[in-house]
Amino acid sequence: MPTALITGATAGIGAAFARRLAADGFSLVLVARDEARLAESADALKLRYGVTADVLPADLATDEGLARVEARLREGVDLLVNNAGFGHPDAFLSVPVEDEVRMLKVHCEAVLRLTLAALPGMRVRGRGGVINVASVAAFFTRGTYSASKAWVVNFSESTAAEITEPRVRVMALCPGFVRTEFHDRASMDISGVPGFLWLDADAVAREAMRDLALGKWTSIPDPRYKAIVSVGRLIPRRLAAKISASLRQA
Length: 250
What we know:
alpha/beta
């Protein structure tokens, strides 16, 4: 039975991946900060899908938390989903520097370290996958959030390009606005986001797994967001920045 480790596994896209992979017969290792919520999620998945679901409480903004997850990954997994992340409600110049550094720790250092912990075993076995959850914000300018997600995309594509084993894959997942706890937890005002831009977390996870199987380096779920990203690449970056500033982070 294959094993998947998912960070940020108790809500939103992470929880959707847990459901998708459990339905596909994966054993799960669920990572998040809240141990009680982790246990609740694991129990629900075991009951519904009959799979093994282990919990690994860890704060990925700390070296101790990262080391705990790295150690588990070195034991071997078949799929790593780097999903943990968060946003800020304010613009870059209004956010305390320690909060920005914490974001970089979770969005960049954690993705780097956990990917490097998982890949050697996958390459030896000749199979495995890493999905690094980024955002369509990676293709626009929106403070440290979009900058960190742009790093995730570039890092994932660069790593994928270096892997020679055909059944070992690394992919950046770039969803748009998804109905999760993300924006509420960041105290973001999302009242101005048009209804047609919202995506379903389960659909995002489903499309991500399909794109990983196809060997894509970057996955942008939903034709609407594929079009938005394509247009964004054609217009001047200053104009794109003005447009993205009218919306909150995706």
